[in-house]
Specification:
Elements: E1 15-18, E2 26-29, E3 32-35, E4 47-48, E5 54-59, H1 67-73, E6 82-83, E7 89-93, E8 108-117, E9 121-128, E10 130-135, E11 138-141, E12 152-156, E13 159-168, E14 175-181, E15 185-187, E16 197-198, E17 205-213, E18 219-226, E19 235-242, E20 246-254, E21 266-274, E22 280-291, E23 298-303, E24 310-316, E25 327-333, H2 340-345, E26 353-357, H3 371-386, E27 389-399, H4 401-412, E28 419-423, H5 429-432, H6 440-445, E29 463-468, H7 477-489, E30 493-498, H8 519-526, E31 537-541, E32 549-550, E33 553-558, E34 565-572, E35 575-581, E36 583-589, H9 590-595, E37 600-603, E38 606-609, E39 614-617, E40 639-643, H10 650-666, E41 671-674, H11 680-685, E42 687-691, E43 702-703, E44 708-710, E45 713-715, E46 719-725, E47 732-738, E48 761-765, E49 768-773, E50 786-787
């Protein structure tokens, strides 16, 4: 019997150069031919394609939505005016200025229209406040937060094309704008990721440009070039493919020929995209600005190790930088809807510290969990490389959603920060929003989301908490309860509650904005240092995937995935004693211990002589960093969606949709190719996410020929998502598969959202979740580690 359970969850013109496949004229250049430069085509703007009228239907909050299942199964057609058979009243309305569909209160707005074209062509769509948009049987994410910056592509067929938009109220005015284009690739300059070019700085940075691919096939072997001029060297970044009918961010490497000399200057940079499978190559010019070195906040970019996209962080530097001095580093996490650059500007310049503001991947992003948490940690390390930083003086602070991020990073990574300073922060989705707590395997895959469970890690650190007592956005009870629990533990916690202050407040105490740049908190930071290799501590981790390292210990795997891992360290003389709970394997940093004069370490009663290098303890095979799970781990390193060459088109459309979701929600770069194009060379650079594909030579514990089967259990008409080693040393792969004829079930799984990670595997049918769980530490199926069987 299957037990059911709940899963918690521009118009811009691309210039074109003739190229394409088959290759054009070549000439001999040494031992191999090269492509000759191609002439550029004249500019051509996108053509407006807004319909004469939209049919609008409204569903009030709490009411059942009969429209969505019909849109998703393809049975929805353009409604007539009046009330339909489901009781939805439809009204015709012409689009307003900039595609406005009029004001919308709480609830869901459905908008539908017909766009007619004489021949197949590309479509570019802006859809503010929309959750999802459809054209015929293809879907894309909308811009639910109504930034006005997001564009997504579709492919129109000759004749009538049904356009459907699902918008939500309470997030601004719904706007939908459509443009047709005969371009294969369209740049979106409204959503650039760019640096400010600092005077005196000639270091390499990156430019990220969202690129809309409007064809129905993957464009392979893409080169992203910066065209050489008097300011920049020629550079090239090779990408395996641009996914079909999707938007993804493309990075370009900016390598100045010399440091910039004058602040406030405009510096153009010309970029080009080339592919042998495209009809043209495409160019655009982006204008950047130089920034002064007087303490003014600026943007700095880097190339992310998560997906190789271009990302940025805001920097508030000291007014004057001494090249021979080491500085403190304050990592600041912004609130919902706030840009990292704006967060950096909220601080006054400090003569003793750099303040750096990570992005969370987007202004709303991932609530500083999951990929947002990874972004914060990545920016921390990038800033340490970019600036001269004293490792003992690193701090984390943030406001609102960033206050939650401060509680998250501070409690999960106490070995990285000398002080945590949350302002107007909330503890968890459960305390703040009332979201139901997940159960079973999902409770463990999402365990890191619960700040209360890891507050004890802050016992060795001072915590400075700020909140306005009239806050209407984040109730002051959130900070009061967190502070109360820390005080009950005996932690070093300081609490400032500003009388009469609401969510974002300022006075005359700070030269910056008081609610983030609070002088007493920064004074305590300046007086507090961190011991990076402390020998006396207690540390609790939800998973080696989330927070593996503290001081000299790196956790590799757990005995059981259903419990936290805990370590207790103490020292006497030249001997360290380490006691562990639920730890299967770990590695000790022998060099760090030796530097502290430690000669012997006793791990769970077994003595080891300290060596000058890594000291493994326990079995090092099986689950380990990078090959550990849960499901999100496959999407936390450069990944590529691999879909079938033949058969149902659902998997290709799903790959395109996931690519666009990652770009829209995570400002990310994704790869997607048919299975025949996923080469061994690509596998060396990208973790595969196989969509309905079983690669040759890879044994996995699931089968899905006529039913999904695992561990002797059979699920009819089902789908499965799971991670598993793919046979390569130190590599992981993911699969999302269904039984034949049930491919539409893949749309149930939308991985790119905060606080809703899947465990190692999940099986579902059209009736809901059927089974979920974890593989054991050796990656074997163990029914005792699952639920729903």
């Amino acid at each position: 019997m299957i037990r059911r359970f709940a899963c918690a969850s521009l118009a811009v013109l691309a210039l074109a150069c003739r190229g394409g496949e088959p290759p054009g004229t070549v000439e001999e250049a040494g031992p191999a031919p090269r492509r000759l430069p191609a002439p550029t085509a004249p500019p051509q703007s996108l053509a407006p394609a807004d319909p004469d009228r939209w049919m609008l239907g409204f569903i009030a909050p709490g009411e059942a939505d009969p429209v969505r299942p019909r849109v998703e199964d393809g049975s929805f057609t353009l409604p007539a005016e009046g009330t339909d058979e489901d009781g939805i009243r439809w009204e015709a309305q012409p689009p307003g200025e900039e595609g406005s569909l009029g004001p919308l209160g709480r609830g869901v707005l459905w908008a539908a229209a017909i766009v007619r074209v004489d021949e197949p062509t590309g479509l570019v769509m802006r859809a503010d406040t929309a959750l999802t948009v459809w054209v015929n049987d293809a879907r894309q994410p909308g811009d639910v937060y109504a930034s006005g910056r997001i564009r997504v592509p579709f492919r129109l067929e000759a004749g009538d094309n049904l356009v459907v938009v699902r918008a939500v109220g309470g997030r601004g005015e719904p706007r939908v704008q459509l443009w047709t284009t005969d371009r294969e690739l369209v740049f979106n300059p409204a959503d650039l990721t760019y640096p400010d070019l600092l005077v005196g700085d000639g270091s390499t940075q990156y430019l990220g440009v969202p690129v809309l691919q409007t064809t129905g096939r993957a464009l392979r072997d893409v080169t992203a070039r910066v065209v050489e001029d008097e300011r920049f060297e020629a550079t090239a970044i090779e990408l395996p493919a641009l996914p079909p009918a999707a938007v993804t961010q493309v990075p370009f490497e900016l390598r100045p020929k010399a440091p910039f000399e004058e602040a406030g200057a405009t510096v153009p940079v010309r970029v080009r995209l080339e592919s042998p499978s495209a009809r043209f190559s495409y160019e655009t010019t982006v204008e950047l600005t130089t920034a002064p070195t007087d303490g003014t906040a600026y943007r700095r970019t880097f190339r992310s190790a998560i997906d190789r996209s271009a990302q940025y962080y805001g920097v508030r530097p000291p007014e004057t930088v001494d090249p021979d001095a080491d500085y403190a580093l304050v990592l600041s996490l912004h609130g919902a809807s706030v840009e990292a650059a704006g967060q950096a500007r909220a601080y006054a310049s400090k003569d003793w510290a750099y303040v750096v503001a990570a992005t969370n991947r987007r202004p709303f992003g991932f609530d500083w969990e999951d990929w947002g948490r990874l972004d914060g940690l990545e920016v921390l390390e990038e800033a340490k490389r970019a600036f001269s930083i004293d490792e003992t003086r690193v701090y984390v602070t943030g406001h609102s959603m960033g206050g939650h991020g401060t509680w998250q990073l501070g409690s999960l990574f106490p070995g990285r920060f000398a002080l945590a300073g949350p302002s107007a922060g909330w503890a968890s989705f459960y305390s703040y929003t009332g979201r139901p707590r997940p159960s079973g395997p999902f409770a463990r895959s999402q365990a890191s989301s619960d700040t209360y469970a890891y507050l004890s890690n802050l016992m060795q650190r001072p915590v400075y908490v700020i909140h306005g007592d009239a806050d209407r956005n984040v109730p002051v009870r959130e900070s009061r309860e967190l502070v109360s629990r820390l005080e009950d533990m005996g932690a070093d916690v300081t609490y400032h509650e500003e009388p009469g202050a609401r969510h974002w407040w300022n006075g005359d105490v700070s030269e910056g904005t008081d609610c983030v740049d609070w002088p007493p908190m920064f004074e305590q930071m300046r007086a507090t240092t961190l011991d990076p290799t402390e020998l006396v501590f207690d540390f609790v981790s939800p998973s080696p995937f989330v927070s593996p390292t503290h001081s000299y210990v790196t956790l590799r795997s757990a005995v059981t995935p259903y419990e936290d891992l805990a370590i207790h360290s103490e020292v006497e003389g030249d001997t360290v004693t380490l006691d562990t709970e639920n730890v299967r394997s770990l590695v000790l940093d022998g060099a760090a211990l030796a530097d502290r004069g430690v000669a012997t370490v006793v791990v769970d009663g077994e003595a080891m002589t300290v060596s000058d290098g890594p000291m493994p303890v326990g079995p090092q095979g099986g689950k380990r960093p990078g090959v550990h799970g849960p499901f999100n781990e496959a999407l936390s390193h450069p990944f590529c969606f691999v879909y079938p060459d033949d058969g149902p088109d659902t998997y290709r459309r799903y790959a395109s949709y996931l690519t666009s979701v990652w770009a829209v929600r995570g400002n990310g770069l994704a790869c997607a190719v048919p299975a025949s194009r996923f080469t061994a060379a690509m596998r060396a650079d990208y973790q595969p996410v196989y969509l309905g594909v079983r690669p040759e030579g890879v044994d996995v514990p699931f089968a899905w020929e006529d039913a999904v089967t695992v561990g002797g259990h059979r699920f009819e008409g089902a789908a499965a998502a799971f991670v598993y080693p793919d046979g390569e040393e130190g590599s992981l792969a993911a699969w999302i598969v269904t039984t034949p004829g049930h491919e539409e079930l893949v749309w149930t799984v939308m991985p790119f959202s905060s606080g809703s990670a899947l465990p190692d595997y999940f099986v579902w049918t059209d009736e809901g979740g059927a089974a979920a769980g974890f593989f054991d530490p050796s990656w074997a199926f163990d029914e005792a580690l699952g639920a729903g069987f």
